[in-house]
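A reminder before we start the practical. When you read a complex entry, don't treat the lines as separate problems. The point of joint prediction is that each chain is placed relative to the others, so the output describes one connected object in space. Small molecules and nucleic acid strands, if listed, are placed in the same frame. In the example below there are two entries. Take a minute to note the order of the lines before looking further.
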Amino acid sequence: MEFSEDQIDRYSRHIILKEVGGEGQKKLLDAKVCVVGAGGLGCPVGYYLAAAGIGTLAMVDNDEVELSNLQRQIAHSTATIGVNKAESARKTFEALNPDCNVVTIKERLNKDNVLDIFREYDVIVDGTDNFPTRYLINDACVMLDKPLVSGAILRFEGQVTTIVPHEGHCYRCLFEEPPPPGLVPSCSEAGVLGVMAGTVGALQATEVLKLILGQGRLLTNQLVIYDALGMDFRKVKVPRNPDCPVCGKSPTITELTDYEQDYCSI
Amino acid sequence: MDIKPDKSIDIKGLVCPMTFVRSKLAIESIGSGAVLEIVLDYEEASRSVPRSMEEQGHKPLLVEKINDTDWRLLIRKGSG
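Here is the predicted structure of the whole assembly.
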């Protein structure tokens, strides 16, 4: 594939970089990324990935934009209230970069559709707001051997980690089972500073680009914890658990499970 | 200097950073050890392009002013 004149201009600041260059930019244009959730995290992740020239970007969301989303979900607008979030994000991202083919998947992930959806993509991004979906995404990525970049935000705190199945830790190495409903507060109970989504989403997008480019060191076996009030970034080691029920030597979880969905959403 | 380039580009009319962007795309298209010839007329680029090429592992062989407005550079592609 040869770059068009517009592409040379559009991606010039990438092409200049030793770690990207024309060759790296072509990898980005050939890449397929699936972002689960077009909410607080999915919006900035998708926004920067579209700007970076990711060739195929799936946005998975079955919710509609609400006014209370707009404090942090920057791909949506007052004009798209009531519109499906994946669709609203698609309009924004395609206006930013027509090179980026945005695929909208207006479904809620479950054990019956997740494998077929993820199979098409090179990298999966978790921008969801609830534990059942987080565990489903983790298990599906381990089963398909797909790299997963996971992020979470609450109040003034954010977390990011990168899961490369069978090379580093997975979500269940950290916590084998999801917490019971109600134990961990959701954003709608606890609140969230809107900009947290941008900070954490930008870190996730960075990990996705590094994965595709094969550059730098990833957050495998590590968790970044960001405390915005203290403006403090900490890295915590997360060892792989050899007895992990899904990615360990003799896994006991070999089929996907839908945990009960009575968690509220961000 | 009697080196025959493997590829030549004329980027007269371009200014930084597009001078380096075009030069970099050209050097990516040749093999390690091959030589790229660049003709340009933006004075600053006669210094910045060789410097950036060197930073990215290539070897500037020649920078010469060939007339009142133009420079000619020869860069050997590195192995990285």
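Discuss with your neighbour: The beta strands of chain A are 32-36, 56-60, 101-105, 123-126, 148-154, 157-163, 222-227, 232-237. What might explain this?
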